[in-house]
């Protein structure tokens, strides 16, 4: 009996079962997932290439989305395993690979939240204190801010895999209600008292995404207060347009990000709802971010068409339709 416990308490693999009740539809569900994943890779890599190769785009309002694109690409590394589960019923994942997924997904999500806060600060300086914007947000300061955000994500989320490795899993090795490895999904199948683990997860979530979201709201309250005091309508509309892309991306990110609340408090929510919300959080923001920043930013579109050699009439027609 002791041998059994030692072997099962620290398994070599976990089993992902996909979406309960919809196993027959896994192939059809995988099609939009695969399309969104490939478009996210293409969009983010294109955004990185365009900003990297165009010196005029090496400004805070473009460098922070560049950092966000890197985090999006890394966060999407769990999708190939998800597609393998849907296509080949390959639900087995090694214990170490599962812990790596947990760390990458949660740490990159924390970094994304930090980059949104940095972009909110950039917009605040550009609108509320434009004369000091360039003097304060130098390339050195941007680099230090990006490094601080990355280190925060690593420092606060590194305990996750170590805690999960320490926990015993003697009840089951099947990860229910998830198509990828997630911190609360593993906590749920551990056979120990979970109050401390749940409290730890909530505290980390609040110290990262929660605090960032509150600060972002505060920054936009100040921004809107400044905008509506502008003397002319054109200046007001231009300032609102400058912030439009950022607000759209924030809404896309934070709306499904609060799905963690359904895992902790939504005990009567159907399992497939948990799973779809979690997959939307993993797939949709990386796909939408480059579209919003690209479509809403004329200089990125101009560079995009120049790099990929679209015809000038087509470019001008597209930009004219977009601006209208």
Fill in the keyword field for this structure.
about 325 residues, mainly alpha, 3-stranded mixed sheet, about 75% helix, about 5% strand, disordered N terminus
Question: What's a concise summary of this model?
Answer:
This protein has 324 residues and is an all-alpha fold.
What would you say this structure looks like, in words?
The chain is mostly helical. The protein is 77% helix and 3% strand. It has 15 helices and three strands. The protein has a three-stranded mixed β-sheet. Helix 2 packs antiparallel against helix 3 (60-75) and helix 5 (95-128) packs antiparallel against helix 8 (159-166). The longest helix has 34 residues, at 95-128. It is globular, with a radius of gyration of 22 Å. The model is unreliable at 1-7 and 311-315 (pLDDT under 50).
Number of strand elements:
3
Uncertain regions spanning at least 5 consecutive residues: 1-7, 311-315
What would the average pLDDT be, to the nearest integer?
81
Proportion of helical residues:
over 70%
Distance between the termini: 73 Å
Question: H/E series, N to C?
Answer: HEHHHEHHHHEHHHHHHH
Secondary structural class:
mainly alpha
Give the biggest sheet.
Answer: 3 strands, mixed
Radius of gyration: 22 Å
Overall geometry: globular
Query: What's the number of helices?
Result: 15
Strand order in the largest sheet: 2-1-3
Strand content: under 5%
Task: Give a topology summary.
Elements: H1 2-9, E1 13-16, H2 26-53, H3 60-75, H4 79-88, E2 92-94, H5 95-128, H6 130-136, H7 139-157, H8 159-166, E3 174-175, H9 183-189, H10 195-227, H11 233-257, H12 260-265, H13 271-295, H14 298-307, H15 312-323
Parallel strand pairs: 1-3
Antiparallel strand pairs: 1-2
């Amino acid at each position: 009996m002791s041998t059994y416990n030692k072997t099962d308490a620290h398994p070599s693999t976990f089993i992902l079962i996909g979406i309960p009740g919809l196993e027959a539809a896994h192939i059809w569900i995988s099609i939009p997932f695969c399309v969104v994943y490939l478009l996210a890779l293409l969009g983010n890599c294109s955004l990185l290439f365009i900003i990297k190769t165009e010196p005029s785009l090496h400004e805070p309002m473009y460098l922070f989305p560049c950092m966000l694109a890197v985090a999006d690409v890394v966060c999407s590394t769990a999708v190939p395993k998800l597609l393998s589960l849907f296509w080949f019923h390959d639900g087995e994942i090694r214990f170490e690979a599962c812990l790596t997924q947990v760390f990458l997904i949660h740490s990159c999500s924390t970094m994304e939240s930090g980059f949104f806060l940095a972009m909110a600060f950039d917009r605040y300086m550009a609108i509320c204190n434009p004369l000091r914007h360039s003097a304060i947000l130098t390339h050195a300061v941007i680099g230090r801010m990006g490094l601080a955000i990355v280190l925060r994500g690593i420092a606060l989320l590194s305990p996750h895999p170590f805690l999960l490795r320490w926990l015993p899993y003697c009840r089951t090795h099947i990860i229910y209600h998830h198509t990828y490895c997630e911190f609360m999904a593993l906590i749920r199948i551990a056979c120990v008292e979970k109050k401390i683990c749940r409290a730890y997860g909530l505290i980390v979530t609040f110290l990262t995404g929660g605090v960032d979201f509150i600060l972002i709201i505060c920054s936009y309250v100040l921004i809107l207060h400044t905008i509506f005091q502008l003397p002319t309508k054109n200046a007001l509309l231009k300032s609102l347009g400058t912030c439009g892309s950022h607000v759209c991306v924030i809404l896309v990110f934070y709306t499904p990000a609060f799905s963690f609340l359904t895992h902790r408090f939504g005990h009567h929510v159907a399992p497939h709802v948990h799973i779809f919300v979690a997959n939307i959080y993993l797939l949709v923001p990386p796909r939408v971010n480059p579209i919003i920043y690209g479509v809403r930013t004329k200089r990125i579109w101009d560079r995009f068409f120049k790099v990929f050699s679209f015809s000038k009439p087509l470019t001008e027609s597209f930009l004219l339709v977009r601006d209208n």
